[in-house]
Amino acid sequence: MSRLRLVLPSPKFKDDLMDYKREFIENRDSMDGSAGLRDSKTFEEWYKAFLDNLKEETVRDGLVPATTYLAISDDGKIVGMIDIRHRLNDYLLRVGGHIGYSTRKCERKKGYATEMLGLALKECIKLGIKEVLITCDKNNIASAKTIINNGGKMENEIYEGDRITQRYWIDLG
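^ GNAT family acetyltransferase, sequence as received from the core. Prediction below:
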C-alpha cells in the first residue's frame, strides 16, 4: 500500500511549497525535480511556468513539456517533488533524463524516493513513454539505489570535467 500520492501543484500548496524551497536552500541542497522552484522569486512566477510547461504549445524556450508532481504523505506533508519530462532533447538524452526528483532532507532514508519514482513510472506509462532514462551523479549512491530498485539498468557513465553522470534505463513496455 502506498504511503504517498502524487498531486499536481495548485495555489492551495503555496505556503507548503515555499517552505519546501526554504528548507532546501537552508540545507544548501540540490532541488532536483522541482521545475525551477529554487530560482523563482515568487510562487506565482513558478506556478505560471509550471502551467506553461505542461503543454507543447506553451512550453518555455529551451525546455520540453513536463509534468511536476508533489509527493504528499499520508499526513498531508510535501515530502518530495518529481518532474517527468514528456520527451528528451539532446541535453536530457545526454545527462538529464526523463525524470528528476528530490526528497526533503528530514524525510530521507524512509523509502520515499523509491516510492515516488515508482508512482512516476506509472504516470510515464499514461504519457506513452515506454523507455525511461533516469540519471544521477555517480556520488549520489542513494539516488542510484532508488533507480535500481525501480528496475533501472545502467547503460553508461558520462564524464564532464570532474562530474560523472550515470545513465539508467527503465523499460516500461
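The chain has a mean pLDDT of 95.
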